[in-house]
Amino acid sequence: MSLLLLLTIVALQSSPAISDPAVSYSGYKVWAISPRTNEENQFLGKMSQQYGLTVLREARFVNSSMDLVIPPTLERDLKNVMDNANIPFVVAINDLQTAIDNQNSNNDEIPNSRAAAHNMTWTNYHRLSNIYGYMSYLATTYPNLVTLINIGTSYEKRPLYVLRISNSSSPGTNPAIWIDGGIHAREWISPATVSYFIQQLVEVPANAKLLKNVDWYIMPVMNPDGYEYTFVSNRLWRKTRSVTSNPSCPGVDPNRNFGYKWGGLGTSTNPCSDIFKGTKAFSEPETLATSNYILGKSSQIKLYLTFHSYGQYALIPYGYDVVYPPDYNDMLALANKAVSKFTKYQFSVGNSAALLYAAAGGSDDWAKSIGIKYSYTFELADTGANGFTLPASQILPVGQDFFPALEVFVSQVATTTTVRATTTKPTTKLPTTATSKKPTITPCRCICP
Ligand SMILES: *[C@@H]1O[C@H](CO)[C@@H](O)[C@H](O)[C@H]1NC(C)=O
Ligand SMILES: *[C@@H]1O[C@H](CO)[C@@H](O)[C@H](O)[C@H]1NC(C)=O
Ligand SMILES: *[C@@H]1O[C@H](CO)[C@@H](O)[C@H](O)[C@H]1NC(C)=O
Ligand SMILES: [Zn+2]
């Protein structure tokens, strides 16, 4: 497809088909609350439900942090409630709208010569048209290396794009690494970081070693409808934008919509919930197209990486419950090796249900279930100070800190033979040789991943 045609399509399709007024979070605060007992934790759960509060993350353990959005109209009441219950909290974000306005306010300096070709940078978060425009630019500019693949269409008819990066004379024969981002709309650092990986792999000659004997399939924005919605309507939107049985509550949580143990723990049947699982597995065109594409390449893809935020975790399946795959130790060892490359951001590593909440229908569980041996969810920065409104000035630090881990994954995959993962029974016990560091306590899989 020609660049011009592509850009035209993107421009047409990104125009907001959205009538909702933009949601303002002016005067809204984010409270970080650390329940000290299970009773306090339950109390907070009930309180947020009763007041209809937006939960940015739930406390999983005693003394872990629950991040709540506090509307100005409820602040006094909620403060009384908290005082009466004698639960302390800290104000993590004093004015959410200010944080939102400041998140993406850098001046991009695009050299004139390049402005015509693409508008992508990593000093700001970008609309879908710039991300897609950049992918298209790369495919045009490096035709021997990069292929733009349209794998389907979103609910609102945006194209779903995967970029294949391969220096093989017969692409499709190398072992491959799959990377996706943007499953959850509001986690802006994810598409930014994933597109940074693309830039590094394609445009930095010193990284050519990462293309030796490995193909890459990279999808920076799996949920483009939701992503665009966070720019034009509601910065904190998480789900897809499909119509549900409740006209005032659209959207399905795509990371509860994958077809392995779909509908189990940590999911909701309520369309108004942020963890609504949908009417069936793969009800969403985005998860359906992605899973079908991956299935078609499942003998080639050896490693599945999906990027979310926030919390700084490397999460290992299974997440539907505290269940360890038979080769969990291999998965843990590789994850530990990968995070050992980080120098700026500390990540906690562990089984996702044990470390956070159980949550069924996640993409990582599904990828593991189809025989991709190494499957991980990464929760990028930060640990709550900025949360989803992580300033754009941290895109490059986050990407640069993570990038060396890709070398670890390449070394693993490039030496992997084509033996499929064993399908022996999973176990609920940690395999005995696992170096199971006690999870460094904090939040949850319930809302974040
Ligand atoms: C939680 O924190 C409080 C205050 O720091 C401490 O006294 C208590 O022992 C902690 N509880 C747990 C279960 O770690
Ligand atoms: C880049 O942005 C400028 C200014 O908005 C616009 O005129 C131009 O068409 C964009 N270029 C591409 C390739 O999207
Ligand atoms: C692609 O492979 C060729 C042949 O092995 C090599 O000369 C070239 O440097 C590689 N290019 C990249 C971008 O990796
Ligand atoms: Zn997420």
From TrEMBL:
| Cofactor requirement | Zn(2+)
Q: What GO biological process terms are annotated to this protein in UniProt? A: proteolysis
Concerning Pfam families, the annotation shows: Peptidase_M14, Propep_M14
Q: What GO cellular-component annotations does this UniProt entry give? A: extracellular space
Name all Peptidase M14 domain ranges. 124-413
**Could you name the domain of life of the organism this protein comes from?**
Eukaryota
Q: Which residues form the signal peptide?
A: 1-19
Q: Which residues form the active site?
A: E379
- Please tell me whether the keyword Signal is annotated for this protein: yes
Sorted alphabetically, the keyword list is: Carboxypeptidase, Disulfide bond, Hydrolase, Metal-binding, Metalloprotease, Protease, Signal, Zinc
InterPro entries in UniProt: CARBOXYPEPT_ZN_1, M14A-like_propep, M14A_act_pep, Peptidase_M14
Question: Entry's CDD domains?
Answer: M14_CP_A-B_like (cd03860)
What is a single molecular function from GO for this protein? metallocarboxypeptidase activity
- Similarity section: Belongs to the peptidase M14 family.
Output this protein's name: Peptidase M14 domain-containing protein
Q: Where does this protein come from, organism-wise?
A: Daphnia galeata
